[in-house]
């Protein structure tokens, strides 16, 4: 009876096992791994500023798919299929001649020599020195700065000083109130935070009736560029202009750039607007 009960009880079913999708077996019995599919780079038309990035993307595809592009002919054919415009015209002219390279590294060097060499009249370091924030946000400016800085060999302290000099006058004034920052990453984070806060504050200002734009006070740079009649003066000595050190002190402490006293700006300085009252009695 015990044997009969065991025979009657349902036996557990074995779940079918599915073969793995990768690797797969070809008819010859050898194992083959499926290579990851990479989207092709954007077609290259000979733009000097895109040459380096285009070849880098092609190299990445070759490394991801070594079995597909396992020969120089396949790599050259892949790059040739992505050329257009004057880049394709150049490759066609070279192909028609007798000096077309048969090895991919030589072919890639020829592309660099023709297109990448003429990318700019200035070296990355010179372009980095001339870079200025302008009307860009601090975040956008930092991207441009880091892109150029990556092509230089300058140390972190030098890059931090150069980044500080490339900022707008307003942000430089805000950073002057803080302790000096010598690390580029920290300086970039602080600058972006200050810039975002200032832009948010300007957007929250109420718009007065009849004035479509929020009122913004004059910046220290504007105060320095006032008319000749508002030249910074030393009131302790009438008619004497202030020294360079005194200018720096007034800018750092936020004092009036005209009279040197705190609590107001040059635009609202009573000493600058004070004029002698003329007696027009006949």
UniProtKB/TrEMBL annotation:
Q: Where is the CCHC-type domain?
A: 256-269
Q: Where is this region: Disordered?
A: 1-47, 198-263
> Is the Transport keyword given for this protein?
no
Q: Which UniProt keywords apply?
A: Metal-binding, Zinc, Zinc-finger
Q: Which GO terms describe its molecular function?
A: nucleic acid binding; zinc ion binding
The cross-references to InterPro entries, in alphabetical order and at most eight, read:
DUF4939, RTL1-rel, Znf_CCHC, Znf_CCHC_sf
Q: Name one Pfam family in it.
A: DUF4939
Q: Which PANTHER family match?
A: LDOC1 RELATED, TRANSPOSON TY3-I GAG POLYPROTEIN
- According to UniProt, the name of this protein is CCHC-type domain-containing protein
Biological source species: Conger conger (Conger eel)
Give the organism's phylogenetic lineage: Eukaryota, Metazoa, Chordata, Craniata, Vertebrata
């Amino acid at each position: 009876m015990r044997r009969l009960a065991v025979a009657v009880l349902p036996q557990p079913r074995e779940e079918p096992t599915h073969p793995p999708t990768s690797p797969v077996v070809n008819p010859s019995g050898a194992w083959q791994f499926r290579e990851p599919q990479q989207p092709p780079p954007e077609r290259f038309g000979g733009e000097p500023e895109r040459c380096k990035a285009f070849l880098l993307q092609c190299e990445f595809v070759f490394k991801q798919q070594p079995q597909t592009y396992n020969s120089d002919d396949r790599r050259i054919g892949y790059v040739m299929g992505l050329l257009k415009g004057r880049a394709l015209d150049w490759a066609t002219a070279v192909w028609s001649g007798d000096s077309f390279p048969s090895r991919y590294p030589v072919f890639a060097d020829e592309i660099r020599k023709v297109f990448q060499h003429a990318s700019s009249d200035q070296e990355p370091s010179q372009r980095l020195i001339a870079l200025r924030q302008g009307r860009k946000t601090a975040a956008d400016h930092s991207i441009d700065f880091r892109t150029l800085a990556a092509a230089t060999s300058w140390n972190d302290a030098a890059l931090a000083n150069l980044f500080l000099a490339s900022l707008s006058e307003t942000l430089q004034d805000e950073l002057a109130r803080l302790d000096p920052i010598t690390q580029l990453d920290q300086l970039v984070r602080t600058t972006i935070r200050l810039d975002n806060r200032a832009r948010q504050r300007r957007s929250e200002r109420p718009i007065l009736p009849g004035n479509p734009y929020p009122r913004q006070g004059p910046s220290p740079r504007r105060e320095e560029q006032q008319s000749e009649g508002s030249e910074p003066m030393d009131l302790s000595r009438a008619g004497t202009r202030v020294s360079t050190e005194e200018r720096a002190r007034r800018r750092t402490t936020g004092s009036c750039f005209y009279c040197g006293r705190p609590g107001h700006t040059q635009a609202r300085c009573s000493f600058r607007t004070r004029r002698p009252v003329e007696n027009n009695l006949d």
